[in-house]
Amino acid sequence: MGSGNVMGGAREARTGGMLQGPARLATTLGIAGLIPFAAGAALALLSDDPAAARAALLAYGAVILSFLGAVHWGLALASGRADTRRAMQRFAISVLPSLLGWAALLLPQASGFALATAAFALLLAAETLGPLRAGLPGWYLRLRIGLTLGALVALAIGAPIGGGGAA
């Protein structure tokens, strides 16, 4: 992306195929953010108390959904008067991931995992194919695809089979 994007003029800085600067840091932190997903999935499989491990995994998923929504809140703030209509759409859409994550925590675990999984997939689709794509740098979209796939795999591994108990 050029310097005209909403991300404050950030450019995709690459040297020999390697990400540089903020993109590199975001990638490193994003990958580190998969650790609780992997740990939660592993504990859900191996723990003596899989329900508690699942609850922790689902809670982390809800937190990350809120974080992903906040990306779009920030982009709406940064857009200023440049595109009021798009900013209003981003503000409206940005609160949905946290609301869906919260709802997932209130449902029985199996339903909560299904809702969280759907929320991650729908947000990724909106960012890569839909209305939220505008203004997002290519490196961010590539990062989001990989991180979301990691989160979805962890949620699938950790999800209870059947109705599940309360979250």
Question: Can you give a write-up of this model?
Answer:
With 167 residues, the chain is mostly helical. 69% of the residues lie in helices and 2% in strands. The chain has a two-stranded antiparallel ribbon. Helix 2 (35-46) runs antiparallel to helix 3 (50-78). The longest helix has 29 residues, at 50-78. The radius of gyration is 17 Å and the shape is globular. 28% of the residues are buried.
The residue-averaged pLDDT reads: 87
Main pleated sheet? 2 strands, antiparallel
Specify the overall morphology.
globular
Q: Give the fraction of residues assigned to helices.
A: 55-70%
Q: In oligomeric terms, what are we looking at?
A: single chain
Beta-strand percent range? under 5%
Radius of gyration: 17 Å
Query: Could you give the order of the helices and strands?
Result: EEHHHHHHH
Structural class: mainly alpha
> How many strand elements?
2
Termini gap: 41 Å
Query: Which residues sit in consecutive blocks of at least 5 with pLDDT less than 50?
Result: 1-13
Number of helices: 7
Kindly report the spatial arrangement of strands forming the biggest sheet: 1-2
Write the layout of secondary structure elements.
Layout: E1 14-15, E2 18-19, H1 21-32, H2 35-46, H3 50-78, H4 84-94, H5 96-106, H6 109-128, H7 138-158
Antiparallel strand pairs: 1-2
Give a brief outline of the structure.
It is built from seven helices and two strands; from the N terminus they run E-E-H-H-H-H-H-H-H. It has 167 residues and is mostly helical.
